[in-house]
Design brief:
heterodimer, A: about 425 residues, alpha+beta, 3 domains, seven-stranded mixed β-sheet, four-stranded antiparallel β-sheet, B: about 240 residues, alpha/beta, six-stranded mixed β-sheet
């Protein structure tokens, strides 16, 4: 018997007892539907986090701070360190400052491709065309930083002129018009230098950022603009002040793999620094979501296993019903292996139909939920609550087919072992 | 011993055939050392009461089962040496089966039922259809090809079964009570078809029956009693 004929026959056989097969398909459908939805939920949320990560920086950059060695292990108060400065994090968080010496040390560590001190800049206001002045926070510079843009381009890291990407929310107050209009305009930025004098500089708006969770509210400067603002800000300050940085960005070779990244962290730790990648910083969130999705998937898989038992049952009945047919085909020379494949493919067909329908229904529901959640979760723009990756969808279908095949083996074996004579005996 | 020098070497030859079912004290010896030759083109009836071993003999001859001891030679080949695959191929290509019960797939079309052996043999769909239609035409059933097997009368169903047995152009047709489920008139038609095939196409007939009339139309009848041939050579007219 040809493979094509076996598959065609198995397909036809699967729907000979329509009601029975439909019920089994329904059970598979429910399992596959649930699994696809929970997977989709995980994919959607993680995709959103990934997008957010991309808006913070790139994956080949490590943020390095000086390890606070004075911090007692028992969680008690740390001794005062005159070298501490304010750091990112909750108000009051301090960290030991990095000096130019530290930067040189870090640059010398094996695996560090380049190091750049993060120069924190505080702008007083932003102004366009002599209009009203508005407060503006300048995001900490991270090389390769990307944001979702409403218009324009990301800042050019190598550009010689000062550029920045403005958040969309500034367009109206600054009377810049639409996002497209704003691109190419020049705005005035003011900082207060160390002597208390307010000085201004100009920068070109190259892009307009869509609101996102992490970059919300901040403007993203390019290298030249940061330098310029920093120089203006530190003008007149003693040198010890101008060469103290809260953190530094270290770029490393991300292709070298996770082990190499971990080794680099170890080497940094040995030198007295703490390095953390973006994954480290957002990893906890992703891990929690993954764990929740895993538990939900577990329930869906339980449903699928129950459905698999339904397949076993359905096929045992089919084998029972077709005892004589199987006996006749074996008498006519059909090998046991072919009988086995006839029934196991029938099981796979049931799995295929059930999972394909389940996945399609899940995608449909995902679209529906997506349009509803867009209205409900306006604070999280760009979030697709349930997203589907082709690979996962195909994996669900193939996985269900594999479960169905396993479920089918038992009945198929029984059919394959049938003795043609006792199957045909009627005396 | 049979030599190659024999004028007509038998198609099927059986010697000292034993078949025991079960083991130990509950063992049942269905065949107790039976010898039989079936010549090429011969029609033969196997007659006997229930439990005489006649069905067992037919199953062994049709290579559906293996004997406990003794040899079955088909066309000079000792069938005990054939692999499971070769046995399957032999049954598929050399034998046709007609049973008392029709064993038709009620939901499938008449054509699909008839071409089942070809499908098993791996023949392409186009050729299956062509040969199936030819076999149905031979039995004057070509106008029913698209009907479901369930919608046919008993006589028509048995003709479909014969068409199915014929489709592989077999050398032997094994018929187990072929007319048992039919009324006399239809039974006679089916018998006519079988003997016509035997005479015109030289297909061997091995018929297991209770029916003396049917047996008498065969070239030869053997009576099985208690696992042995009781009345040899009941040669018919």
């Amino acid at each position: 018997m040809k493979i094509v004929d076996i598959v065609a026959t198995a397909f036809r056989n699967a729907f000979r007892s329509r009601l029975r097969t439909s019920l089994t398909v329904l059970a598979i459908f429910i399992g596959a539907f649930t699994l696809s939805l929970t997977n989709g939920l995980g994919t959607g949320i993680n995709q959103y986090i990934d997008d957010t990560v991309a808006s913070v920086g790139v994956d080949d950059v490590m943020t390095v701070t000086k390890t606070n060695e004075d911090e007692p292990a028992d969680g008690g108060p740390a001794e005062y360190d005159p070298n501490q400065i304010e750091a990112d994090g909750p108000p009051g968080t301090t960290t030991s400052a990095l000096t130019d010496d530290d930067i040189e040390t870090i640059a010398g560590i094996d695996g560090v491709l380049s190091v750049q001190p993060a120069k924190s800049v505080l702008a007083d206001y932003v102004q366009y065309d002599d209009g009203t002045k508005y407060q503006l926070s300048i995001s900490q510079f991270v090389p390769g930083m990307k944001v979702e843009l409403a218009s324009g381009e990301q800042v050019d890291l190598d550009a010689g002129d000062p550029q920045l990407v403005l958040p969309e929310s500034y367009l109206e107050p600054l009377e810049l018009g639409s996002a497209a209009d704003a691109v190419g305009q020049t705005v005035v930025l003011a900082v207060t230098d160390a002597t208390g004098e307010q000085v201004t500089t100009e920068a070109t708006v190259v892009g307009v950022a869509e609101p996102g969770v992490i970059t919300m509210g901040g403007a993203i400067p390019n290298d030249v603009l940061t330098e310029e603002l920093y120089d203006l800000q530190t003008n007149g300050a003693p040198e010890s002040e101008t060469t103290r940085y809260a953190q530094a960005s270290v770029s490393f070779d991300v292709d070298a793999g996770e082990e190499e990244a971990a080794a680099l962290k170890d080497r940094l730790a040995d030198a007295g620094y703490t390095g953390s990648t973006l994954e480290d910083q957002l990893g906890t969130i992703t891990a929690v979501i993954d764990a929740i999705v895993l538990v939900l998937n577990g329930f869906a898989v339980i449903a699928l296993v129950a459905a698999g038992i339904g397949i076993v049952n359905t096929l045992f009945m089919a084998v029972q019903e077709r005892t004589r047919e199987v006996g006749l085909m074996k008498a006519m020379g059909l090998s046991s292996a072919r009988v086995f494949s006839l029934f196991s493919i029938e099981a796979v067909v049931i799995g295929l139909v059930g999972s394909a329908l389940g996945v399609l229904a899940a995608i449909g529901v995902g679209q529906l939920v997506g349009s509803v959640s867009g209205d409900l979760l306006t604070d999280l723009p760009g979030l697709t609550l349930i997203a589907f990756e082709p690979v996962t969808v195909v994996a669900v279908v193939l996985g269900v087919m594999a479960i169905a095949f396993l479920a089918g083996t038992l009945p198929a074996l029984r059919a394959a072992r049938q003795d043609p004579i006792s199957s045909l005996r009627y005396e | 011993m049979r030599e190659a020098a024999d004028v007509v070497s038998p198609l099927l030859s059986v010697s000292n055939l034993h078949k025991t079912y079960g083991s130990g004290p509950s063992a049942f010896e269905a065949l107790k050392g039976l010898d039989l030759d079936i010549a090429e083109g011969e029609s033969m009836a196997i007659i006997g009461k229930s439990g005489s071993g006649k069905s067992t003999l037919m199953h062994l001859l049709a290579l559906l089962d293996r004997p406990t001891s003794g040899t079955i030679t088909l066309d000079g080949t000792d069938t005990s040496r054939l692999s499971a695959k070769q046995l399957n191929q032999t049954r598929n290509s050399a034998f046709g089966f007609v049973f008392q019960q029709f064993f038709l797939n009620a939901q499938a079309s008449v054509l699909d039922n008839v071409t089942l052996p070809l499908k098993i043999a791996g023949v392409s769909r186009r050729e299956r259809t062509a040969r199936g239609m030819a076999a149905l035409a031979q039995l004057e059933l070509d106008d029913k090809a698209g009907n479901k097997a369930n919608d046919l009368s008993g006589g028509q169903k048995q003709r479909v079964v014969i068409a199915r047995a014929l489709i592989n152009q077999p050398r032997v047709i094994f018929a187990d009570e072929p007319t048992g489920n039919l009324d006399t008139a239809t039974g006679t038609v089916v018998e006519d078809i079988l003997f016509d095939l035997n005479q015109r196409q030289g297909i061997n007939l091995v018929v297991v029956t209770h029916d003396e009339d049917l047996a008498s139309r065969c070239d030869r009848s053997i009576y099985i009693r208690d696992g042995l041939i009781a009345a040899p050579a009941g040669v018919a007219a």
